[in-house]
Amino acid sequence: MNKGVDGSALYDRLIVERARSPLFSGRLEQPDITGEGKNPLCGDKTRVELTLDQDHISLVRHHTRGCAICQAAADLMAERITGLKPAEAQTLSRQFSAMLVAADVTSASDGGTEQPFALGPLEAFAPLQAHRARIRCAELPWVALKEALSHVDV
């Protein structure tokens, strides 16, 4: 079964599991940078806290109040960006957004000079292509990440 655009797979098992039992939920004692995302239409909120180790993201935690898609997106994002450089996390963010609108991932880069990253478990959100109203739920943690990274020279 092709899960790429199958609208019936909206709540993939991984999404449900990570929403119920997030691995990266919580707060950092002394984060280096933070960012927040809010969706006033549905009430979803997420706060992302990061610790940087030289030029890499070493720790990520999120505090998310929202639907299962938003919660799982925050947790899977936190897992996927840990260990990346801030610029790499920004590239991954653009690729994730491109996947959600079924765009060519390479076209979401800066003219072809960015190295594409494997989305891995984040591909569980591909079925949102058929549920446009839910895309904002999956992108909200990335909005918070973008705000956090706006305080870092990349």
Automatic annotation (TrEMBL):
Transmembrane segments: none annotated. This is Fe-S cluster assembling protein of nitrogenase NifU-SUF. GO terms for molecular function: iron ion binding; iron-sulfur cluster binding. GO terms for biological process: iron-sulfur cluster assembly. It comes from the Bacteria. It holds the Pfam family NifU_N. CDD domains: IscU_like (cd06664). Residues 11-94 form the NIF system FeS cluster assembly NifU N-terminal domain. It comes from Acetobacter indonesiensis. Coiled coil: none annotated.
